[in-house]
Specification:
- With about 400 residues, this protein is of the alpha/beta class.
- The protein has two domains: about 140 residues, Aspartate Aminotransferase, domain 1 (Alpha-Beta Complex); about 240 residues, 3-Layer(aba) Sandwich (Aspartate Aminotransferase, domain 2).
- The chain is built from 13 helices and twelve strands.
- The strands form three sheets. The chain has a seven-stranded mixed beta sheet, with helices on both faces.
- It is globular and about 75 Å long.
- The two termini are about 40 Å apart.
Length: about 400
């Protein structure tokens, strides 16, 4: 059976060059980078090189890069770190209703500790109103945390404008860029961003490694205490093989960015046009143009998304019904609900997220298989029969 993987926003395979770069650090290069003897010195230079590669991808200074265990840790580190460091200035944080749960649940945790969190609404395309953001800022506001691009719909937020508002008001701005890094150009010497989170397994590095950009001078209390690693910003023995892997993945992402972007965009548009031309009653979720080049979120009206996902799986096609971190939940996507999508339409949504190894043949296979699955499921659905027979 043919296998097609289109869930790259959930995770990516480790790039062969990344795996090759990592292997020596599981064997002969085994030292602790904090040790001053030869074994430690030999590996520390590779940590420094990886830091430079991550910084280069973002056009930042290596001194502004901190390695973490994952994207969720990076988000927690940013939000709790600023909240605790600036609690004497104020305890108000602004975010949106469509953030990843790493941000939303951290906000809810802080609310239990006496912080106030404003959750900005979004429009039908998944975007905030910048004037709404401006009005929400108070003298007590210490942090704005708004994602760079949404993991479910791919909608890209106006990060430049958000950062300019934050600068104008003297508020720290953090962006969860976990889905944007490697897919969009990011220049932190030009973007008014103070803290940025990224994750290795979204850019063809292994799971279990992430990073944080912290602009020089930004106050942040460490999330993990212990040793003095990462310039006292994140304690714990460095995960050398994975740090090297993230560095190599960042180097590849920068090297291959132009052709990857064009490749993603061509395949996504081919997939979207193929599905919409062959299957009626399909709704696009997310901004039609301000969207990640690899991401397509569609609702197939009158079908349960989970049923569609399982039937695609039986045909060897791996996609998602939302965030991988909420897999197994029967609830409709909080992102789509916040966008005003009716619950029954939100529950019929499927996310296709493409990767560098996907081909036109993969797309054509999905477009060939999907219509008959949708037809079969709709033929069994009394909901659909009523929908097509009702006056519009």
């Amino acid at each position: 059976m043919r296998r097609v993987y289109m869930d790259h926003n959930g995770t990516t395979p480790v790039h062969p060059e990344v795996l090759e770069a990592m292997m020596p650090f599981f064997k002969e290069q085994f030292g602790n980078a904090s040790s001053i003897h030869w074994a430690g010195r030999e590996v520390k230079k590779y940590v420094d090189e990886a830091r430079e590669k991550v910084a280069s991808l973002l056009n930042a200074s290596p001194a502004e890069i901190v390695f973490t265990g994952c994207g969720t840790e990076s988000d927690n580190m940013a939000i709790k770190g600023v909240a605790f460091a600036l609690k004497d200035k104020g305890r108000h944080i602004i975010t949106t209703r469509v953030e990843h749960h790493a941000v939303l649940h951290t906000g809810q945790f802080l609310e239990k500790m006496g912080y106030e969190v404003t959750y900005l609404p979004v429009d039908r395309d998944g975007l905030i109103d910048l004037e709404d953001l401006r009005r929400s800022i108070k003298p007590q506001t210490v942090l704005i945390t708004i994602m760079f691009a949404n993991n479910e719909t791919g909608t890209i937020f106006p990060v430049q404008e958000i950062g300019e508002i934050a600068r104008e008001k003297g508020v720290i701005f953090h962006t969860d860029a976990i889905q944007a890094v490697g897919k969009l150009p990011i220049d932190l010497r030009r973007l008014p961003v103070d803290i940025l989170s990224l994750s290795g397994h979204k850019i063809y590095a292994p799971k279990g490694i992430g990073a944080q950009y912290i602009r020089t001078g930004t106050k942040l209390m460490p999330l993990i205490h212990g040793g003095g690693q990462e310039r006292n910003r994140r304690a714990g023995t460095e995960n050398i093989p994975y740090i090297v892997g993230l560095g190599k993945a960042s180097e590849i992402a920068q090297r291959d960015f132009p052709k990857r972007y064009d490749h993603f965009l061509a395949l996504r548009d081919r997939l979207q046009e193929g599905i919409l031309s062959q299957i009626p009653h399909v709704q696009l979720n997310g901004h039609p143009t301000k969207r990640l080049p690899n991401t397509l979120n569609l609702s197939f009206l009158c079908i349960e998304g989970e049923s569609l996902l399982l039937n695609l799986d039986l045909e060897g096609i791996a996609v998602s019904s939302g965030s991988a971190c909420t897999a197994g939940s029967s609830e409709a996507s909080h992102v789509l609900l916040a966008m005003g999508v009716p619950p029954e339409v939100a529950q019929s949504a499927i996310r296709f997220s493409l990767g560098w190894a996907n081909t036109q043949e993969d797309v054509d296979y999905v477009v060939e298989v999907l219509p008959r699955i949708v037809k079969r499921l709709r033929d069994m659905s009394p909901l659909y029969q009523r929908y097509v027979s009702s006056p519009k």
